Amino acid sequence: MNAPLLDVQGLTLHRGSIRILDDVSLTLGRGETLALVGESGAGKSTIAVALMGLIASGGVRIEGRARFDDVPDLMTLNEKGWSKLRGRRLSMVFQDAGSALNPCYTVGSQLASVLRRNLGLSRAAARSRAVELLESVGINDAAARLSAYPHQLSGGMQQRVMVAIALACNPDLLFADEPTSALDVTIQAQIIRLILDETRAHGASCIFVLHDLALASQCCNRIVVLYAGQVMEAGPCDTVLDRPRHPYTRLLKSCVLEIGTKELNPPEGGVPGYDAMPRGCRFASRCPQATARCADERPPLVEVEGRALACWNPG
Amino acid sequence: MLAQSAGRIVQTIVVLLIVSGASFSLLKLAPGDPVMLMLGAEFSQESYDSLQHDLGLDRPVLVQYLTWLGNFVTGDWGTSYVSRTDIFTVVVKEALPVTLTLTACSIVLAVAVGVPLGVLSAVRKDSVWDTGVAVFALTGTAFPSFFLGIVLIWLLAVQLGAFPVMGFVAPWDDFRTGMYHMVLPALTLSTYFIGMIVRVTRASLVEVLDQPYIAAARARGEPGWRVVWVHGVRNIAMPVVTMIGLQLGGILQGAVLTETVFSLPGIGQMLTGAVLGREYTLVQAGVMLTATLFIVVNMIVDLSYPLLDPRLRPR
Amino acid sequence: MAAVGPTTANAAAPPANGKPIRAKSMLRRRPFFSLALVITLGFLLCAVFAPQLTPFDPTAQSIDAMMMPPGGAHILGTDSYGQDILSRIIYGARYALLIGIVSVALGAAGGLFLGVAAGLASGWAEWVLMRVIDSILALPSLILAVAFIAILGQGVDKVIIAVSLSLVGPFARTVRSDVLQVKVQLFVEAAGLMSIPRMTVIRRHILPNVLFPLFVQVTVRVSEAILVSSSLSFLGIGVTPPTPDWGLMIAEGRGFVSFAAWMSGMPGLALALLLIALSIIGDGVREEFDPKLRSDR
C-alpha cells in the first residue's frame, strides 16, 4: 500500500485576520516517523492540535484538506466523527504529562476508561490489560501503580503512562507534542526510545513536534521545517539535515551546539509579530539571502534534490 | 497532617471560648435586671436578695461565666425567665431540627439547580445562555429573600393555590406533606445560593476546561459530555464546597428571614421572638448555638479538603 | 486589562491616571452597568430631595384612605393606616441609603483598624487578634446585628450601630489579607526599608495598597448593609413604626397579601431594584479592579 497514511494539503488556520498556519502541506507514510521542527510559536503544535480536531472553535477558521487513511478530509468531521477516530486511530502524547493527567483520578482509572470506552473491554479485562500496558512501557510494579494518582509519580513515569494511554488502542497515528521538553535530559532519551519502540512494535506512524534539531535527526525518517506557520523545507531527515538548501534550515543547523566548539554565534532577530508578516516568504526579514522578491511573492514548495523546498534563493 | 488537624482544632476551641465569653457578656450587657423581671411589680429587698442568690447572680462575674459555660457544655441552658420552660429543649429539640431541615433542603436544591446551570454557562461561554444565566444569578443573589418569599406566597399560594402559605410539618413524621410544606421556603432560601453556586461553578469550570488534561481527555476519544461532567466537574468539587462553607453564614441568616416569612418554628423565629420579648437567655443560647454550628461546620469543611483533592492527601 | 492591587509587582503607588480611562471603557462594555448607575442615582435623588418630591406626608395617617389600591391621588396606593405608599417609598430611599452608607463607612473604618493591626502584628499578638476576628466572623452579619440590637434596643441610630459592628468582621478579614500581601513584598524588597520609621512605612506603602481594595469592598457591601437593615426592620427589631423603612413596610403589608398585595409589593420592588442596581455596580467595580475574581467576599 503506497498511498500515504496522512496527506495534508494547503492547511491554513485563520484567527481573525491573522494566518497562524499558512498553506501547510505534508505527507506521511505508514510506519514512518516525521519531525515537525521550528522555533517557538512557529505553529508546530498547532498543526498537531488541528489534525486532532482539538482547536478551540472561537474565532478560528480552517482551510485546506487533510486526508487520513480512509477518511477523505479530517477538517470536515463533526464531533461525532472525531470521537470515532480519537483515542482509537489517532492519539496524542502531550508535553507536560503531569498536567495532562486528571489530578483527581488514579492513573489506572484513566487508562482503564480508555480501554473500556474504545475497545469495549469489561472492567476486569481492562484492568489486566492496563497492567500489561504499564509493564510494556517500563513501569515496574505495575499493578500497584494502577491506584496511584498522577502527582505521586515522577515526571518520567507520568510520561510513560501517557505513552501507555496513547498506544492503548493501537492507533495508526501518534502525535508526540514535545514529549520530553519537561523532563530531565537522561529521561528524555529513554522516553523517545520508548515512543519509537512502541510505535514500531504496533506498526504505527508517529509525528514528533520538536524544537530540537539534534533529537529530530536521531529519531525521525522525515522532517518538516516550519517558520511562522509556513513550510520552508521538507523531506527525508538525512537529506534535509546533511545538506540543507533552505537558508532557515541552515540557520537552525548552525545553532545546534556541539560539545567542543568554542564559538557561539546566535542569529539575529526573532520571529516578527503576526500582524507584521510580509505577504511572501515570512522568513524574508531575517534571511541572509533575501531579495526584494522574497517579501512580495511566496516561493512555491518544489521538489529539489530529493526534498521539498520553498525558496527563491536556495543555498 | 495530623498536626495540622490538631492545630485547627485548637484554633476552633479558642474561637469558641471567645464567642462564649462574648455571648455571656451579651447577657450581662442587656438592659433590664433579670431578678426584677422575674419578681414582677412589687417586691421586697429580701425576696430580691434571696432570688438573686438563688440564681447565682451575686457571685463574681468570672465565676458566673465559668458556671454558665459548664452548664452550657453539659446541656443545662437554663430556663427562660419569662416562660419558665427548659431552654435546651426549646432550642435544640424543637427549633433546631426545623432550621436544619430547611437548610439541608435549600443546599440540596441550590446544588441541584446551580451546578448544572453553571456548567451550561461555562460550556456555552459568552453565548445567550451564558448571559441569561448570569442575569438570573445576579438577580437571585441581589433580590431580598424575605420579599421573594412573599412574592412566592402571593404567586403560588394565594393566586394559584398550589402550595401552602405557611407552617411546618416534620418530614420524619410525614415525608410527603413535610416536603410539600418545604417547597416554597426552600425555594426562597436557595435562590441566593443558586446564584453563588452558579458563579463559582462557571468560573472554576472555565478555568478547568482550559487545562491540558481536558484536551488530553478529548484526545483520548472521551465524548463531550463525559469530558465536562466526569473530568471537568470532578475538579471543581473543591471550589464549590468552599463556597458552600463560606456561605453557610449567609444560609443561616437567610433561614432566619425565611422562617419568619413562612412561620416555621425554627431558630430564626425563636431568636427574633426572644429579642422582642427581651428573653436574653434565649438570645444568648441561640447566638451561641449558631456560632458553634457555624464554626464546627467550617472546620469540617476545612478537614474535608484532602478528600476532595487527592493532591492534598499525605503521600 | 492590567491587574491592579497588591499582587502587582510595583505595589508602591495606587494607579493614578488609570482610573478615568478604565471607568469609561467599563461603561461602554457593560450596558447594564450604566443602567444600574442611573437607577442608583435616581434613588439617591429621591433620598436627597424627598421633602420636595413627596405628594403627601409619609406619616400622615388617614382613616378614610385606608388600603386604597394604586391609582388616583395615591399613585401607589395606601397602607393599612392610610399613609401614602409612594411618599413612604421615597422617604424609605432616604433611610435605606442613609443607613447603608453610614454603616458601611463605620464598619470599614473599624475593619481597617482591626485588619491593619492584625496584619502588622506577629507572634502571639497576631494569633490572638486572628482568633478575635474569627470569632466576630463566627456569626453571620444579620445574626450578629440581631445580637447587638438585643443589647442596644431599636431605632434608626441603633440599627446603624448594629449593622456597622456586624460589618467590621468581613472588612477586617480582607484588609488583613491585603496587608499581609504587601508585608511580604516589602520584606522581599528590602534591607533598605529597615531604617524607615514604621508609621511612614504604613502610610506610604501599606495604606495605598489596602485602601484601594477596601474601596472596592465598600462598594460591594453597601447593598449588604441595606439588606441587613431592611431585614432587621422586617423582623420587627429594626426601626420603629411609623418610620418609612422599606423592610418595615413589607412586614406591615404581609398579612394583607391576599387582597392588598401592593402594600408589600411596592416597597419590595423598590428594595429589590435598588439592591440589584447596587449589586451590578458592585460586581462591575470588583471585576475591573480585583486581581482575582475568586477572592473571598
Description:
The complex is a heterotrimer of chains A (315), B (315) and C (297). Chain A has 315 residues and is α/β, with parallel strands linked by helices. Chain A has helices at residues 44-51, 79-85, 97-100, 107-119, 123-136, 142-145, 155-167, 185-202, 213-219, 237-242, 247-255, 292-296, and strands spanning 6-15, 18-28, 33-37, 60-68, 90-93, 173-177, 205-210, 222-227, 230-236, 302-304, 307-309. Chain A is built from twelve helices and eleven strands. In chain A, the strands form two sheets. An eight-stranded mixed sheet of chain A has the order 5-6-7-3-8-9-11-10, sandwiched between helices. In chain A, strand 8 and strand 9 (230-236) form a beta hairpin. In chain A, helix 4 crosses helix 5, helix 5 (123-136) crosses helix 7 (155-167) and helix 7 packs parallel to helix 8 (185-202). The longest helix of chain A is centred in the middle third of the chain and has 18 residues, at 185-202. The mean pLDDT of chain A is 86. Chain B has 315 residues and is mainly alpha-helical. Chain B is 77% helix and 0% strand. Chain B is built from 13 helices and no strands. Chain C has 297 residues and is mostly helical. Chain C has helices at 18-29, 31-48, 50-53, 85-120, 123-137, 141-152, 156-189, 198-235, 246-254, 262-289. Residues 1-18 and 292-297 of chain C have low confidence and may be disordered. At the B-C interface, helix 1, helix 6, helix 7, helix 8 and helix 11 of B face helix 5, helix 6, helix 8, helix 9 and helix 10 of C.
